[in-house]
Structures are given as C-alpha cells and as structure tokens.
Amino acid sequence: MEISEYFPIWNRLTEAERTMLTEHSFIKQIPAGTVIRDGHSDCMGLLLLRSGQLRAYIASEEGREITLYRLLERDICLFSASCMFRSLQFDLSVAAEKDSEVWVIPLDVYQSLTESSVAVANYTNELMGSRFSEVMWLIEQIMWKSLDKRLAAFLLEESGLENSTVLKCTHEQIASHLGTAREVVTRLLRYFRSEGLVRLSRGSIEIVDEKGIMRLAE
Amino acid sequence: MEISEYFPIWNRLTEAERTMLTEHSFIKQIPAGTVIRDGHSDCMGLLLLRSGQLRAYIASEEGREITLYRLLERDICLFSASCMFRSLQFDLSVAAEKDSEVWVIPLDVYQSLTESSVAVANYTNELMGSRFSEVMWLIEQIMWKSLDKRLAAFLLEESGLENSTVLKCTHEQIASHLGTAREVVTRLLRYFRSEGLVRLSRGSIEIVDEKGIMRLAE
Q1: Quick one: A62 and A161 in the same domain?
Q2: What is the pLDDT of residues B43-68, one digit of tens each?
Q3: What are the b/e assignments for B31-70, b being 16+ CB within 10 Å?
Q4: Quick check: B208 and B201 in contact, CB under 8 A?
Q5: pLDDT tens digits for A18-53?
Q6: What is the tens place of the pLDDT at every residue in A89-120?
Q7: Chain-centre distance of CA A59, in angstroms?
Q8: Helices marked H in A25-170 — which ranges?
Q9: Are B131 and A132 in contact (CB < 8 Å)?
Q10: In this structure, what DSSP letter does residue B208 have?
C-alpha cells in the first residue's frame, strides 16, 4: 500500500505536495518493545501506522507510568513530531506494544507542508484535538471513576485489542497502564476472581463473566 | 486599545483579514461569576482577554469540579470556539473569576480566517498545544504529587494572582480547584496551621510562612 492510501487528506494536497510526500516518506519496522520516543527526545517526524500497536504514556521520576492512549492501524502519531510545536511543553513517551510497521514522514517534510498548506495545518489541528480529547477522557476517569471500574474497562479494552478472553499481561503491566501500584492491581483482580468475573493464572487473566465486567465498568 | 494590539499574529495577516477582524470583533463585559461556557454549549467564538480572569474546569455528574487552567490578561480562550474542531470531544466549562473584559471574534469570522490563512491555522495549533500542555501538567500533578503539595502550590498561585498573602476563598472553592472534597482541604489546612504555615479565619486564609509553603510545594 502506498502512502497515498494512508495520508488522510491526500485529496486536498497539491500535485507538488503529493510528490514531496511520496519521495521523502519511507517505511520503518518497529519491533515490539521498542521505545520510539523517550520523554522529549527523538523527534523523527509524523508516523502513520500501517500495522501494529503503539502506546503513548507518561512516566514519573520514580518510574511509575500511566497510559494516555493507544494508536492502532491507520492512526497517526503526532508526538513523534512534537518539536514542531513550541507550545507543546511536556514529556510523553511512545513505545511499540506489538511489532509495528509505520510510514515515516520526516520532520522537515511535514513542517514544510504545514507551513505551505492550510489544509495540512488544519488537519494537524484536528489530530491534536483528538489526542487532547483522549487525555481529557483519561483525566475524567482518574478524577471521577474508582479504580475497580477503570480496571474493568481496561480488561475489556485489552480483550477487544487481542480478540481473546485470555489476556497475557502481568499485574505490573496493568499497573503501568492505569498509573497505580502492582499491589493494588493484584488486590482488585483477586476481588474480581472472588466475584467470579475472572480466572487468574501465572502471567494471564481469563475473563469468565464478560457481562459482569461490563456492568462494573459502566 | 484596538484588537490589533491584542491579536497575537496581527502582522502576519493580510489587509483584508485585518479589516474583517476589526469590523466584526466587539468588546464584551463579563461580570465575575458568569459561566461563559457550560460543558459543551455556547460556542460564541474566540475570546481575547483584555482584563480580568477566567477559569477553565471540568465537572463530574455529581457536581465535583477541578480547575484545568486559568486565563489572564492577553490570554486567548480557544474553547469558546471549540465547535470549530470536530475532534475536540469533551465537555469543558469556563467561568469568569473576576470582572472581565474580552474581545469577541465571532465564530464564523475566526473559522473563515483559519480556512484561508495558514498563519492563523498554525497559530491555532500553537494555542491548542498550550492548553494541552497545561492539562498534561495537571495530569502529572494528580498522578504523581500528593495533595498537600498541590494545595501548597495552589495557595502560592492564588497569592500571586491576588498579590496578597491573605486569600479570600472558602475551603469549598479550593476543593473545586483541586478536584477533591471540602473535608480533605479543611484537614490539610489544619495541618498547615499546626505547622505554622498559615493562619485560618472565617472565609480567609493567611499565608504566614511563604518559604515553608514553597518548600512543601516543591
């Protein structure tokens, strides 16, 4: 598949802009586990996800983490080009959760496009608005929702992403998604087990009462 | 003062764009306490703050609140024009904390400018990036900082805004800024008092050891 298939506003670009994108963009393989961006470093350009799964998160000085959002096929990673925006003053990390393949639009190419094309500039605004909305959703979750509901919602999300009711993830990993301590996740999962919602075994969690977990998440 | 003095990228507008802004923008007085935007309603356009103080916040279904950021003189309220951006999918409220005076750039005027001017489109991006950064700062505070440190930082911020060490605010109001319960604020303030940091009286809090509060906030 060509980049013309992935770049969302291709039909609003001029012929010259299309040529620039086609000539300078390239495909990159990112193995699962790779940290693409660590805090504020590594400003390689805009990434268009062809396949795989990326995770955007923040980390505390003590190494605690919380997931901000996930990027899936056809999503665009804006923060890999964040140095374009002087006003974006925060550290955000991005890592590949699965083997991923991305189109890379190099930073200077994307920057030149946003400076010449009002369509690209406004599209970039929409992109930033989407990420902003995901972070606002997260704040609302953190502020107004109890952790058992957030854990239930996370299990459902994972189950959807993996297309399986058996989730291969450690309590530590879940804690890093939710921004809490491993012990808290373990305690809540044991409570879920006692309620007949999940079955626990070493390194995996099986959802046995999906409807019950849905009720809890709401 | 004319709008040309307040609109940040005036020198990057064409003559026609300047005329459009000058002819259609108007000044509006907003008395302290006015809710300018309640959740997702009221999309009046871009507001440029001439004087006063606005507060952006979110509220839970139960009526709990947390302050996202404040807008002061020369700041721009982007969310009063949020319906321009399809991707901004969250409720955010804005209220005047002090008597305020704003330039209103009506929605259709600002929308037309962002569609024609790459400079305005990119400036809007910078604006959204600034607000995004403030919200990310808040997430980091909520996630990694204890509430006593956040309360200390809030008292210092208020003291700076009011240019006074005597703060006229109730425990309830502080709770709504920090997104917590009134009882928690009262308990923490009593602890601050026992440490000799503040003096408490009905409806006001006096900072008596500013350096001590600064040490706590860090």
Answers
A1: no
A2: 889 999 999 999 999 999 888 999 99
A3: eeeeebbeeeeeebbbbbbbebbbbbbbbeeeeebbbbbb
A4: no
A5: 999 999 999 999 999 999 988 876 788 999 999 999
A6: 888 999 999 999 999 999 999 999 999 999 99
A7: 14
A8: 107-116, 118-144, 147-162
A9: yes
A10: S
The predicted pLDDT at position A83 comes to: 87
The verdict on A125 touching B (C-beta cutoff 8 Å) is: yes
Residues A116 and A172 occupy one common structural domain: no
Closest Cα of chain B to A199: distance in Å?
A: 29
Phi/psi for A38 (5° steps) reads -115, 95
What residue type is B17 in one-letter code?
A: E
d(CA A144, CA A211): 22
Is residue B40 over pLDDT 80?
A: no
ipTM of this predicted structure: 0.90
Q: What's the CATH number where B184 sits?
A: 1.10.10.10
Residue B203: its pLDDT value, please?
A: 85
AA identity, residue A10: W
Do A128 and A166 share a domain, yes or no?
A: no
Shared domain check, B124 and B169: no
Nearest-neighbour CA in chain B from A136: distance (Å): 7
The pTM assigned to this predicted structure is 0.91
Q: Which pLDDT score, from 0 to 100, does residue B61 have?
A: 86
For residue B94, name the pLDDT band (cuts at 50, 70, 90). Answer: very high
Share of chain A above pLDDT 70, in %: 100
In single-letter form, the type of residue at position A189 comes to L
Structural domain for B16, as ranges: 3-142
CA distance A174 to chain B (A): 16
* Domains contained in chain A, number: 2
Flag whether residue B132 sits within 8 Å of chain A, measured between CB atoms.
Answer: yes
Q: Is B21 in contact with B7 (CB distance < 8 Å)?
A: yes
A14 touches chain B (CB under 8 A): no
Please check whether residues B124 and B160 belong to one and the same domain: no
Where do runs of H (alpha helix) occur along chain A?
Answer: 3-6, 15-24, 107-116, 118-144, 147-162, 171-178, 182-194, 210-217
Please report residues of B whose CB lies closer than 8 A to that of A118. Answer: 114-118, 121
Question: What pLDDT digit, counting tens, does each position of B71-88 carry?
Answer: 999 999 998 998 888 898
Instruction: Please tell me the distance from the alpha carbon of residue B64 to that of residue A176, in angstroms, as a whole number.
Output: 27
Residues from chain B contacting residue A56 (CB–CB below 8 Å): none
- Are B152 and B180 part of one and the same domain? yes
